[in-house]
User: Fold this.
Amino acid sequence: MEARLLTLDAAAAYCGLPKRAFRHQVRERRLPAPVRLGSRELWDRGKLDEYIDALHGTSSTGRRDWNAALEKF
Assistant:
C-alpha cells in the first residue's frame, strides 16, 4: 500500500524536485501547503496531483487555469 501522506523528502521526490526547490514552490503556492499532524508536516499525494495537473492546465475533469484551481483551496 502506498502512503497518501508524504514527508518532505517523499513529497519532493514524488514531484521530482530537490527539497529546497519543493519548499520554494510551496511558498509560491505552486504546490499545496502541508497538513500538520502533531509536529509533523505531511503532504497529501492527491493534492500534489491536483496542483501538478493545474500547472499543466489539465485535470481529470478537463482543462482549467491555474487561478481557478487555486480558488478551491
The beta strands are 5-6, 35-37, 40-44, 58-59, 62-63. Residues 22 and 59 are 21 Å apart (CA to CA). The first strand starts at residue 5 and ends at 6.
